Amino acid sequence: SGARMLMKISQLSSNLQETRCKLKLEEGKCMQLSNQVEQLSKQVTDKRHALKRAREEVDEQTAEHQRNLKRARDESRELMAASEEWQSQFLEQKSSMVA
């Protein structure tokens, strides 16, 4: 009976050691996964910052294009007005020369 008890204790001790080894392996895997999650989280944060900067740049360029477009329209209106003024004066001079 004592020998059987000793064998049972030996078997339980062996099982315990095996379980401890498995636990250490699992802890190692958990640490690895935790590090990977941390790296991925950092990458996501970096990409979000890059996306935000890109959006801001697009907004700035869009605003610049809108300012340029407004300036071009204003200049076009001024040229049209000057052209009409010149045409009007030309026609007046032409009609006064004829008369």
UniProtKB/TrEMBL annotation:
Annotated spans, Disordered: 54-86
Ranges annotated as biased composition (Basic and acidic residues): 54-78
Domain of life: Eukaryota
Protein name: Uncharacterized protein
Protein's organism: Heterosigma akashiwo
